[in-house]
Prior knowledge:
Blueprint: H1 2-25, H2 37-43, E1 58-59, H3 61-70, H4 73-77, H5 113-116, H6 120-130, H7 141-154, E2 164-165
Antiparallel strand pairs: 1-2
Amino acid sequence: MAWRSVARFALISMIVAVGAALSAQSPTFGVGCAPTADEVRAWDISIRPDGEELPAGHGTAREGAPIYIQKGCAGCHGRTGSGANAPTLIKSDGTTKSTVPCLAPCVNDNNVMALHAPYATVMWDYINRGMPLGKEGSLKPDEVYALTAYLLFKNGVIREDDVMDAQSLPKVVMPNRQGFALPAQAWKHGTPRLQSYP
Length: 198
């Protein structure tokens, strides 16, 4: 007899839990609101490889060098862009060995972003969204262009006087452009994102 009471209690509990979960998903739950067009635009800050979403602005490596110090990049990444606690940004000459353990995922001379990323816009996007640590999103577009140019120059990808802007940055040929197996392709609504994927 006791097992029937336990089974009945378990069944009722399961029905109540499923009902609560379903009602939490319904549009009548009364929490939140649909974002406005301005809110969506403010959150939509990712940059595609072709740079279509890049904002107006420009910068050079010469302008980026003092910004690298002023904005505190050197405090985490080191004055030379390597050998500090944060990931390596500028490939070292190989003579200086860091005594600091590399944080996971370990970004070192073998995979610095300027040499590993397939598109220069990836660097711009990451700096714009994620730096400086604790003040993410505080850099102006000109500062992001200048910092990107500085890192590209210091890694031998562009010349020091090359101006990076919305037109020139996507045209930078990155050393690892062909190193990725799948090139970015346009996705059409309703089609599988990967071959043989449901």
